[in-house]
Amino acid sequence: MLRHLWALTQGQRRPLAAALLLTLAAAAVGVAQPLAAKAVVDALTAHRPLLIPVTVLVLLLLAQALVGAFAAFLLERTGERFVLGMRTRVFSHLLRVRMHAFDRLRVGDLMARASTDVAVLRDALTHLSVQIATNLCVALGSVGAMFVMDPVLMLLILCVMLVGSLVINGLSARIGRASTTLQNAVGEISAGLERALSALRTVRANRAEQREIDRLTTLAHRAYDAAVHSARLTATIAPTAQMAINAAFVLVLLIGAVRVDEGALPLGALVAMLLYATQLGGPITELMEGVASVHRAKGATDRIQEVYALPIEDSANAATSRGPLWRHPPQRPTSSASLEIRDLRFGYSPDAPVLRGLSLSVPHHALVALVGPSGAGKSTTFALINRFYEPWSGSIRIDGQPATDVDLQEWRSHIGWVEQDCPLLHGTLRDNLCYAAPDATDDRLWRALDLVNLTQKIHRLPAGLDTDVGERGARLSSGERQRIAIARAVLARPRLLLMDEPTAHLDPANEAALTVNMHNLRQECALLVIAHRMSTIEAADTVVMLSNGTAQATGTYAELLRTHCGFQRLVDRSADVDGSCRPWQPGVR
Ligand SMILES: Nc1ncnc2c1ncn2[C@@H]1O[C@H](COP(=O)(O)OP(=O)(O)OP(=O)(O)O)[C@@H](O)[C@H]1O
To answer: Where is the ABC transmembrane type-1 domain (predicted)?
Structure first.
């Protein structure tokens, strides 16, 4: 764990070292104070002039206050920088995690890791790197000075301290376990809250508010129990350390008084020993609390390490790591097909293949419709074209370039994708439109909006393109969201446009307009469209019928209708398109 924490301090080690040095300097000044006090007492008892020892004592007090304050500020700032760096690193990693790993995670829990776990680590880091180090130095310095003055007394004190430390160490390990439970419970609360809030309408429509509140309350109670358990253990640390210090103080006072009485110890040395014993209280308590804090951070460290251990996409670290990888930048088509898929095999788990040798091609400037029953693997095909997942085998080429030869970022820059549920991001219409093409001019934005029949509507809005769309586009209708998503995809000028049921949320007028526009779009790019609606299927140049993970039939709408009974059933909205085909009979649907 110390190794992990050390690794986490990367980038902050210099300011941390500076803070440590200053804190040590302040502590060293503190260690010297009893000696200065001794000099004052010695001067007093020997009737020597007091000016110099008193001045030194006052200066030491002032210096400790000033250096200590600056060190504390530096430490706080370093802690905040650490939080900043960690959060940035966690976001950067999470946004690049491979899809198959991401599918298994809970978004709310990830958000907790980036917020609360990082904050817990920050405390551990400051405690660990500076407080433990300085307090250890102060304690050792005091112990050393006491040892010089009276080794016998010192050994007695050490024995008392050792017993206290053993008790506290046992407590710290238990605090660590309670903290892991607490951090996991906080992650669960976050995930539960995210689940309910992201589907608030569903929750309300199903009258499930109270059930969700009950679930969250149960989780909150779990976190409360873990926190109280941890607090109970933590609360015993300071008194245990204080008891050890008090016992040491009483020992020094009793045995020291006897030794002064016997003349074995000067009075000044006893005063200094007592001051050291008192002064040890703070550092020893903080040292022990620091150790407990390190244990408390174990849960958070493990949870953040789990994030870093998630695999990230190949070119995620540096899009330029392999240079501009489109070896022959396709200014002109280098292949007869814009998209070529050959014998693609893939499944989300090894024992459940979804695609079982899919082959299809989308010629340049063509509109190809991908049809098939629900669950046939249409969206999965799109996910593989986008390279969200690695296929088990087979190849995907754009303009003749195999996906494996092209940098991931560059590959995706040639693909436009309109998702099935068209999620918009919180922000303005302009933010959403420019998401794939940040440099798009207003002129281009309006042209893209024209394409999806939204120009007039947006012109009528008081804030126009700067209208806020709400969380996930909640202030727009689903048809408007879909049209914005299409405009956004088109703005990036892709070579290949993938549309997952683009007319699903459109009314007949907008559906007809989009069908015409898809025809026009073919001038600019090839289109592969997952289609359930007849208007889209009929408009396609080629229809690919996907079933059982393969392309069962390919042809024009009329050809498939004539020759493929499964397709005919699909057109008829027959229920079972996956079952065995009955022979097609003219005039019978
Ligand atoms: N992320 C995922 N993890 C595991 N299984 C998945 C995942 N996504 C899809 N599947 C499974 O893969 C199969 C194909 O799903 P896919 O979404 O590709 O079907 P589809 O043809 O697009 O269906 P629809 O027309 O209903 O959208 C389904 O059985 C689905 O349960």
So the answer is: 17-296
- Residue 522: pLDDT band by 50, 70, 90 thresholds? confident
**In terms of pTM, does the model score above 0.90?**
no
The whole-angstrom separation of Cα 552 and Cα 433 is 37
Q: Measure the CA–CA gap between 403 and 109, rounded to whole angstroms.
A: 33
Q: Whose CA is nearest to atom 26 of ligand 1?
A: 374
Spatial distance between the Cα atoms of 393 and 65, rounded to a whole number of angstroms: 68
* Poorest-pLDDT segment among 48-52, 71-75, 286-290, 535-539: 286-290
Two tokens at 251? 């020992």
Q: Is 428 in the pocket of ligand 1 (CB under 6 A)?
A: no
pLDDT tens, 531-548? 888 878 888 899 999 988
What is the sign, positive or negative, of the torsion defined by CA atoms of 266, 271, 274, 279? negative
Ligand 1 pocket mutation, candidates 97, 354, 358, 552, criterion most atoms within 8 A of CB: 354
- Residue 344 confidence (pLDDT): 95
Q: Measuring CA to CA, which residue among 499, 506, 553 is closest to residue 531?
A: 499
CB of 377 within 6 A of ligand 1: the answer is: yes
548 Cβ below 6 A of ligand 1 = no
Smallest CA separation from ligand 1 atom 3, residue: 348
- Ligand 1: residue of 99, 349, 356, 380 to mutate (most ligand atoms within 8 A of CB) is 380
583: DSSP letter: P
Closest Cα to atom 17, ligand 1: which residue? 379
For 398-442, the DSSP string reads ETTEEGGGS-HHHHHHTEEEE-SS-PPPSSBHHHHHTTS-TT--H
Q: Name which of 121, 86, 129 is nearest 300 in CA terms.
A: 121
Residue for token pair 């589907």: 199
How far is 233 from 242, CA to CA, in rounded Å? Answer: 15
Does residue 324 surpass a pLDDT of 60? no
Contact indicator for 382, 530 with CB cutoff of 8 Å? yes
Instruction: Centre a 10 Å sphere on the Cβ of residue 464 and count the other Cβ atoms it contains.
Output: 13
Is pLDDT above 70 for 579? no
- Token pair belonging to 335: 């292949």
8 A C-beta contact, residue 392 and residue 345? yes
Say how far residue 349 (Cα) sits from the centre of its chain: 25
374 Cβ closer than 6 Å to some ligand 1 atom: yes
Provide the token pair at 102: 């991401």
Calpha distance 574→581 (Å, rounded): 12
